[in-house]
Design goal:
23% strand; globular; transmembrane helix; arylformamidase activity; KFase_sf
């Protein structure tokens, strides 16, 4: 049995698969997956191979801070420690149902913290808009079929909310490390100057766009791992993102959510000791 199974950890894939119909920014090149080989060779073994061609910002992907701010981290500069951390979900689905250009506001963040406590140090903050259910349908997802990127309609994050997030600093001084959502962009579809991108990226907070399955996550108490393609001086890149959700155990939950500094470091040791005891006694 896997150790994760003993702990009762559930993994949620937060990435869409790449294929020829992958959602991409209207002005960017489409994803092309060309089959080179697929079948049994003359020597008797099975062989599959593909060529792929795509823009950095296609499908589920990471926006590096350098994407919208000079002399900030590129994709290959982001420390690994910032690609792993506690995750939270802020739900604005009701607002988005009424207004396709709805934005996460400061009030949404403060309402979340009143109900759930402060955002944990090193948090990856996800915004659930409900737009993920539209992924795969270009008109429904982007709000327009225009190839020039005009008349787009989808939710995003307000500049005031972005400023609020960049100002947060926990006990370690780390604050929020990444912000993601289930839409094509951090800024809503009407934006032409992308102020939310600029604000977050100035502070080396990366973005995650076209994120999948956010509706399967709890509001807090899970761990996020982001694995972007390591492109030298990349402005971003395709990413495999997943969440680890532990069983509702106080010790494990505290470790994953980062709420308690002492428990955060003791929890892994306690878990190993428990596993050793189980092995010895079985």
């Amino acid at each position: 049995m896997l150790f994760s199974e003993c702990l009762g950890v559930t993994y949620v894939d937060l990435s869409h698969s790449l294929h020829n119909d992958t959602m991409h920014w209207p002005t960017a090149m489409p994803v092309t997956v060309q089959v080179v080989a697929k079948g049994e060779t003359t020597k008797g073994y099975w062989y599959e191979s593909n060529n792929i061609c795509l823009a950095e910002h296609a499908g589920t992907h990471l926006d590096a801070p350098a994407h919208f701010f000079k002399e900030r981290w590129h994709a290959d500069d982001i420390p690994l420690s910032r690609l792993m951390g506690p995750g939270v979900v802020l739900d604005i689905q009701e607002k988005a149902k009424k207004n396709p250009l709805a934005e996460l506001a400061v009030d949404d963040i403060t309402s979340w913290t009143e109900a759930n406590g402060p955002l944990p140090d090193g948090a990856v903050v996800f915004v659930l808009t409900g737009w993920g259910s539209r992924y795969g349908d270009k008109l429904a997802y982007f709000g327009s079929n225009n190839s020039d990127g005009s008349n787009l309609k989808f939710p995003g994050i307000s500049l005031d909310a972005a400023k609020y997030l960049t100002a947060l600093k926990g006990d370690s001084g780390l604050g929020v490390v990444g912000v993601g959502l289930d839409t094509p962009s951090l800024d809503n579809g009407a934006s032409t100057t992308f102020p939310t991108h600029v604000e977050l990226f100035e502070h080396n907070i990366y973005g995650l766009e076209n994120v999948a399955n956010l509706e399967r996550l709890p509001a807090k108490g899970f761990h996020v791992t982001v694995m972007p393609m390591k492109i030298r001086e990349g402005s971003g890149g395709p990413a495999r993102i997943f969440a680890s959700i532990p069983d509702a155990d106080d010790v494990v939950s505290a470790h994953f959510s980062g709420r308690s500094g002492a428990v955060k470091y003791l929890a892994p040791i306690l878990l190993v000791l428990i596993a050793v005891v189980l092995i010895i006694t079985v």
